[in-house]
Amino acid sequence: MLHAADVPAVTKETWSLTVSRPAVRKEQGEPLTLDWAAYAALPRVEVFADFHCVTRWSRLGTTWAGVSTRTIAALAGWPVPDDPTSAAGYVIAGGADAVGSGKNWTTNLPLADFFSPHALLCDTADGIPLPADHGAPVRLIVPHLYAWKSAKWLVSLRLSDRDEPGYWERLGYADRGDPWLTNAVNPDGERFRDSAGRRPDGGDEAMMI
């Protein structure tokens, strides 16, 4: 498995998820915080879907189990439209993995993708709890986008009215990451402007994407 940093030491006992509240009167409400017990008590869903990595492999026909993103959003008071495609705004998903300068890994998602009926907070794949290197105890799964959009070791979800590129997006990966549009990198990004074969992490070897 590929990671931007070392696998963080997070367990069910130490894990928690912080979810921002919608802005009210220009002030952000107190965030919702869930520990493992509170998360595990929420209604469960299963999603049968493929999973596509930007490094040219796919995991086909996987049953992902956990809690719907729409359930989490509603619990935090986010407006959840009946039609996901009508949602405006963005979600910034944060992982527990530190990527330098005291900052944790993030990725950005349009609300329309986050509210997809196939998107969920996942703790189990094909009936087996996620292992540590796959993002345990809880990761985001947005199966219709490339895997880097499915944040591992998920610890935060923040509602935003503006797009805020995350770790890989700032290094040249495409903003949305739609595998059906071969939307893997931003060719106009700084790290790809001079050489299409340059690694997004700044290395010298070409990386399959």
Automatic annotation (TrEMBL):
<dbReference type="InterPro" id="IPR000572">
    <property type="entry name" value="OxRdtase_Mopterin-bd_dom"/>
</dbReference>
<protein>
    <submittedName>
        <fullName>Sulfoxide reductase catalytic subunit YedY</fullName>
        <ecNumber>1.8.-.-</ecNumber>
    </submittedName>
</protein>
<dbReference type="Pfam" id="PF00174">
    <property type="entry name" value="Oxidored_molyb"/>
</dbReference>
<dbReference type="InterPro" id="IPR036374">
    <property type="entry name" value="OxRdtase_Mopterin-bd_sf"/>
</dbReference>
<feature type="domain" description="Oxidoreductase molybdopterin-binding">
    <location>
        <begin position="5"/>
        <end position="168"/>
    </location>
</feature>
<feature type="region of interest" description="Disordered">
    <location>
        <begin position="185"/>
        <end position="209"/>
    </location>
</feature>
<keyword id="KW-0560">Oxidoreductase</keyword>
<feature type="compositionally biased region" description="Basic and acidic residues">
    <location>
        <begin position="188"/>
        <end position="202"/>
    </location>
</feature>
<dbReference type="GO" id="GO:0016491">
    <property type="term" value="F:oxidoreductase activity"/>
</dbReference>
